[in-house]
Write a structure and sequence with these properties.
The protein is of the alpha/beta class. It folds into three domains: about 5-45, no CATH class; about 60-155 and about 300-325, Response regulator (Rossmann fold); about 160-300, 3-Layer(aba) Sandwich (Rossmann fold), CATH 3.40.50. The protein has helices at about 5-10, 15-20, 30-45, 70-75, 75-90, 125-135, 160-170, 200-210, 230-240, 255-265, 300-315, and strands at about 60-65, 100, 120, 140-145, 155, 180-185, 185-190, 195, 220-225, 250, 275-280, 295, 325, 330. The chain starts with a helix and ends in an 8-residue tail after the last strand. This is LacI family transcriptional regulator.
């Protein structure tokens, strides 16, 4: 059976372009020649346009459900970039995105989710909430939650792999006394109720690594809120408890690492000499710290854009099978840890 991808391949355009041309989407800017070529290819391949119901008056919109509150998002560079990626790609593809729920702000109800073309869920929500959402709208794209087991589209950065890669770099450079400072895993249900656990992907990878390399005696993992204040508090706790001190610390986020810097400097410990530091996010402040912070760069904007493209594929019925997109991360080396 001829599919939309076959038409796209022969017409030398994307499946989305084929779908929107056949949908008679007037907001799509393509040349008359391209439109004619698509219809000619569809006719030549005997592609049944009418049977596939390709006449629509408008493109459905995309809803966004985020576990991050509006106030927290304004302060968190990662989630701010992710939201920008969502909005920029939606504008580029002429998709509406005006139904946005922030679960941390405790919405009282979700209305008409079944009337939306697709839903994008940002952050960690409970398994039951995912099931509830799927009952309302099967076109579900989950961002930043690789632990979801349901058959949905997923987009996330490969944090577990990079966590182990950084730990391996520490080990190769002679550091066995490696500690971890990070945040708890926070899951929300549809009413914003929080469930807090220690099963966060970075600490999970850290504990597995230390166990696999028979370094349990050196393992110290301290968890709190994903804030500068808790980064400082946990670092002070680590310094007071660990004997001997760790020679390297992996920190779950750059904001927490800023707090760790403050704590180490209070105890006159030289970062990059006495204790190596590596973190995650590569926020702008990371390069301005003294010494510069070695950190894992995650392209949050690309994650957001990819989620919108997956949503459009669902809306256009280009595919039915779920897709998992894992984005690579990159270690940005600065003075807090320079591998040999």
């Amino acid at each position: 059976m001829v599919g939309i991808r076959d038409v796209a391949r022969k017409a030398n355009v994307s499946p989305t372009t084929v779908s929107r041309v056949l949908n008679q989407d007037n907001t799509l800017h393509v040349s008359p020649e391209t439109k004619q070529r698509i219809f000619e290819v569809a006719k030549r391949l005997d592609y049944d346009i009418h049977k596939r119901n390709y006449v629509k008056k408008r493109m459905p919109s995309i809803g966004v459900i985020s576990t991050i509150s509006k106030a927290s998002e304004a302060k968190d560079v990662y989630y701010k970039e992710l939201r920008m990626g969502l909005e920029e790609e939606a504008r580029r593809l002429h998709m509406g995105m005006n139904r946005i729920y922030n679960l941390s702000d405790h919405p009282t109800e979700w209305k008409d989710l079944d009337q939306l073309g697709a839903l994008i869920v940002v952050g960690t929500v409970t398994k039951q909430s995912i099931n509830d959402l799927l009952e309302q709208n099967p076109h579900l794209i989950v961002v930043d939650n690789p632990d979801i087991q349901q058959q949905v589209d997923m987009v996330y950065g490969d944090l577990e792999r990079m966590t182990k890669a950084v730990l391996a770099l520490f080990l190769e450079n002679g550091h066995k006394r490696i500690a971890y400072i990070g945040g708890y895993q926070v899951e929300l249900d549809e009413l914003g109720k929080k469930t807090i656990t220690s099963n966060e992907k970075r600490v999970r990878a850290y504990l597995h690594f230390m166990n696999d390399h028979h370094l349990d005696e050196y393992a110290h993992s301290l968890l709190g809120n994903w804030t500068e204040e808790d980064g400082e508090r946990l670092a002070i706790e680590l310094i007071q408890q660990a004997d001997p001190l760790p020679s390297a610390i992996l920190v779950g986020s750059d904001p927490m690492a800023i707090g760790v810097y403050r704590a180490l400097k209070k105890f006159n410990l030289a970062i990059g000499k006495d204790i190596m530091i590596v973190s995650f996010d590569d926020i702008e402040m990371a390069s301005k710290l003294s010494p510069g912070l070695t950190t894992v760069q995650i392209n949050a904007k690309s994650l957001g854009k990819a989620a919108v493209r997956l949503a459009v594929e669902r809306i256009e019925r280009i595919r039915d099978e779920p897709i998992i997109m894992t984005f690579p991360t990159q270690l940005i080396v600065r003075e807090s840890f320079i591998p040999k």
